[in-house]
Write a structure and sequence with these properties.
The complex is a heterodimer of chains A (170) and B (130). Chain A has 170 residues and is mainly alpha-helical. Chain A is built from eleven helices and no strands. Helix content of chain B is 15%, strand content 43%. A four-stranded mixed sheet of chain B has the order 1-4-3-2, with helices on one face. Chain B has a four-stranded mixed sheet with strand order 5-8-7-6. Classes of the chains: A mainly alpha (170), B alpha/beta (130).
Chain lengths: 170, 130
């Protein structure tokens, strides 16, 4: 699966993407390796840990999320992953993941696993649309061919979000 | 019509190395080997009343097991280096109680054993208010 991140994202965006299940721990490491860090954290101990992490070692990989959290706590002490600012980042990352579903070979489960964390953190935001219904009973074995309704739901959500933006929403 | 009863046995792949597969089930999932016959190189693990048969000659399969405390287990196992193919994820809200008490949700996480069998760990939890 192609990485959702390009490498130039702010660490807060990476954290929120991870919190909502849009990316995995391995994606965090991949981001750190492609990221051109500014001086403010290029030498940070947690950032360097991410850069040097061996993503093939499951034990160390499991710690990536925690190191990213520590980095952000130090760099942006006022940042809350449930704030309005975070919600807007979550919306952007969510929509980015939906777009990749339409273009790339992303499994339905990689989209559907975002539903519960988003509902929980951002109190059932309207930009989530009716993704839950389209994801009902989707598990790791569900194929794209089995889920044409998911594609329809994603197209509808993307259209609704574009429309809302055009109307000055959010 | 025949009187078909409950599931008695499910066959899973033993993989190339039965020892490694059983070690995973014991070490990671805490499930003891109930019986082993060598030759021919098969083993049984009990999951409730269902026998899991590990044998070669069958393709890797998928089995869903109930677990209490899925989130805590995932955190602990992940920290110990167990690779999950999917973290705990909401799969279904059983609003009507079709598969258990009404208004519970089914959460599942997935991992693979060394033989390539997929293990879905399932926990039903009260649904959050929607």
């Amino acid at each position: 699966m192609k990485s959702l991140l390009e490498g130039n994202e702010d660490p807060r965006s990476v954290l929120i993407a991870r919190e909502i299940g849009a990316i995995s721990d391995a994606d965090i490491i991949n981001w750190a390796n492609r990221h051109a860090a500014p001086q403010s954290y290029a030498e940070d101990i947690d950032y360097l840990w991410l850069v040097r992490c061996n993503s093939r070692n499951a034990t160390t990989l499991g710690r990536a999320h925690g190191h990213l959290r520590s980095l952000i706590k130090r760099l942006f002490p006022d940042f809350s992953d449930t704030s309005m600012e975070a919600s807007e980042i979550a919306r952007e990352m969510f929509l980015r993941r939906l777009r990749t579903y339409l273009k790339d070979d992303v499994d339905p489960f990689h989209v559907c696993r975002m539903v519960a964390p988003i509902e929980g953190r951002y109190e059932f935001p309207h930009w989530l649309g009716d993704l839950y219904s389209a994801c009902d009973w989707t598990d790791e074995h569900t194929t794209r061919e089995q889920a044409p309704h998911l594609r329809d739901a994603i197209q509808r959500i993307l259209a609704d979000n574009t429309e809302n933006l055009a109307n000055g929403g959010f | 019509m025949p009187a078909i009863g409950a599931v008695r046995q499910v066959a899973l792949s033993a993989g190339r190395d039965l020892d490694a597969t059983l070690a995973f089930w014991q070490g990671v999932l805490g499930m003891k080997v109930h019986a082993r016959y060598d030759p021919p190189g098969i083993a049984f693990i009990l999951a409730g009343d269902v026998r899991l048969l590990f044998t070669d000659g069958v393709p890797a399969g998928t089995v869903y097991l109930d677990i209490a405390g899925l989130e805590a287990f995932h955190a602990e196992a992940k920290a110990a280096g167990v690779p999950f193919t999917a973290p705990p994820t909401l799969v279904h809200r059983d609003t009507d109680g079709r598969f258990g008490p009404a208004r519970e949700s089914e959460w599942m996480a997935f991992l693979k054993d060394p033989a390539g069998n997929t293990i879905g760990l399932v926990e039903r939890l009260p649904s959050e208010p929607h």
